[in-house]
Design goal:
This protein has four helices and seven strands. The protein has about 150 residues and is of the alpha+beta class. α1 crosses α2. The radius of gyration is 15 Å and the shape is globular. The structure holds coenzyme A. The site of coenzyme A has 18 residues, from β4, α3 and α4.
């Protein structure tokens, strides 16, 4: 694992400009900056950033209600992929979820995003069902879940 030297911490409002810039590079239909600003001040959220040499290279935004955790966003800068960084973000999120008494984690992933689906498969997520027309451009989402 090459996550040595990477600092993982809860996202703050001052991180949002960098998170949003990374979001725009990573997603075809990125969240607006205001979505991130709202998430970072909403209770019941677990939002993490990963920094290398002070620069944000990855983030995970999640929400939990009672016994369910939902991964809203996870992304790693293209130049920092396949180094276990997303895995490290998910491990931290899962550990936090367990502490809160969460029993299942849910997420949506584009049907065409086979790489992300493979990543989730490695983490023992199972495809649950297809949600048609979920994304703004009409693409379907695969809803995936993992019991804790
Ligand atoms: C999906 C994503 C978050 C994975 O981040 P990452 O830090 O590269 O993932 P990791 O290095 O932790 O990968 C862990 C394991 O998952 C699997 N995996 C990760 N990316 C993969 C890929 N592109 N293809 C196939 N398997 C992959 C591998 O088994 C990998 O282990 P290995 O590198 O030892 O083979 C990253 O590719 C990304 O940001 N993509 C663009 C945004 C996105 O699609 N987010 C998810 C939206 S639902």
């Amino acid at each position: 694992m090459i996550t040595e030297g990477i600092i993982f911490e809860r996202a703050a409002m001052s991180d949002i400009a960098a998170v949003h810039a990374l979001e725009q590079r990573c997603f075809p239909a990125p969240w607006r900056r205001e979505f991130f600003e709202s998430e970072v001040i909403t209770p019941g959220r677990f939002n993490l950033v990963a920094r290398r040499e002070g620069v944000i290279i990855a983030y995970l935004f999640a929400a939990w209600i009672v016994d369910e955790m939902h991964i809203n966003k996870i992304a790693v800068d293209a130049g920092a992929r396949r180094q276990g960084i997303a895995l490290a973000l998910m491990e931290r999120c899962t550990a936090f979820a367990v502490e809160q008494g969460v029993t299942s984690i849910w997420l949506e992933v584009r049907q065409s995003n086979e790489e992300a689906q493979q990543f989730y498969h490695v983490l023992n997520f199972e495809p649950e069902y297809i949600r048609k027309g979920y994304y703004p451009d009409g693409e379907a989402a695969v809803v995936m879940t993992r019991d804790l």
